[in-house]
Design a protein that fits this description.
Blueprint: H1 2-16, E1 35-40, H2 45-58, E2 63-69, H3 71-80, E3 85-88, H4 94-102, E4 107-122, E5 129-130, H5 132-140, E6 157-161, H6 166-176, E7 186-188, H7 191-200, E8 204-209, E9 217-222, H8 229-233, E10 240-248, H9 253-263, H10 265-274
Parallel strand pairs: 1-2, 1-3, 5-9, 6-7, 6-8
Antiparallel strand pairs: 3-10, 4-8, 4-9, 4-10
């Protein structure tokens, strides 16, 4: 009897390490096939929300949850296995890839849309055009009054995204170009918050994804080029980037079906509808 018990225990232990049973060690492997969770970039958020809404109308067996938090949050969640899709408005960093690999995660990014980072000012501001060098000087603190760039004598109030933001990472690379963001900048957690703050603050300047432009803001040209679909597509608007959905490995199952939907003509119609630029 004792020998039989030892054999039975050994069999149970061995079964824990077979491929199907051992999946408990990876939360995404145990996820419900009919449930998709997305988190991350607030730039990607309006696209993710609208696409999820339309997809679920046609696929009643699928439940999709969507949240923001920033690109860094989305990629971290993918690495930790707490989401199906990590939304990001920037490419994954090398250090994030290293961390992912150490946890057995293979991040694969799919470009689902393109975007321009629009420079926005308060609607009362009459400045219509700034150069990249002027933007660098404004956000680094070398230019502090609008009169220095053709505006009135108001003090410039810089409003920026926080460090978890992919939009901040791209802005830092393409606009600041090695300079440090001025220390008195107001750091906010989402595109929506920046848009609202600039709209309410005289003298304010900030930056948002194209989907967050509205009549409450003035979008400033950069080097004489407007932030719009045509100029992002032809490459003349220089502050632009692709938008990603990251998965662990190549998309599969319902996740693949959903991402394929976004890349379909119907999905790309939604991309345009929310204010971004199509990939097809």
């Amino acid at each position: 009897m004792k020998k039989f018990r030892m054999i039975a225990v050994a069999a149970v232990i061995a079964s824990l390490f077979t491929a199907p049973a051992f999946a408990w060690n990876w939360p995404w492997a145990a996820s419900n096939e009919g449930k998709i969770s997305m988190t991350g970039s607030t730039t990607v958020l309006p696209l993710a929300q609208k696409a999820a809404e339309e997809y679920m109308k046609a696929n009643k067996d699928v439940d999709i949850s969507v949240s923001g938090g920033g690109s860094g949050v989305g990629i971290a969640a993918l690495i930790d296995g707490t989401c199906s899709i990590g939304n990001s408005s920037r490419s994954i960093k090398n250090k994030e890839i290293v961390k992912a690999k150490s946890k057995g995660v293979n991040p694969v990014g799919t470009i689902v849309a393109n975007d321009g980072i629009a420079i926005v000012v308060n609607s009362a501001n009459k400045v219509e055009d700034l150069t990249l060098d002027q933007l660098k000087a404004i956000f680094s603190g070398d230019i502090t009054k609008w009169s220095q760039v053709g505006g009135n004598g108001e003090k410039i109030v810089c409003i920026s995204r926080d460090s978890a933001s992919g939009t901040f990472e791209v802005f830092n690379e393409l606009v600041l170009r090695g300079a440090k963001l001025r220390t008195d900048s107001l750091m906010l957690a989402s595109n929506k918050e920046i848009a609202e703050a600039v709209a309410k603050t005289p003298g304010a300047i900030g930056y948002v994804g194209l989907a967050y432009l509205s009549s409450d803001l003035n979008s400033v040209k950069v080097n004489g080029v407007a932030a719009n679909e045509a100029n992002v597509l032809n490459g003349s608007y220089k502050i632009s980037r692709p938008l990603f959905m990251y998965t662990n490995g190549d998309p599969s199952g319902k996740v693949k079906d959903f991402i394929d939907y976004i890349l379909s003509p119907e999905g790309q119609r939604i991309v345009k509808e929310v204010g971004y630029v199509t990939v097809k």
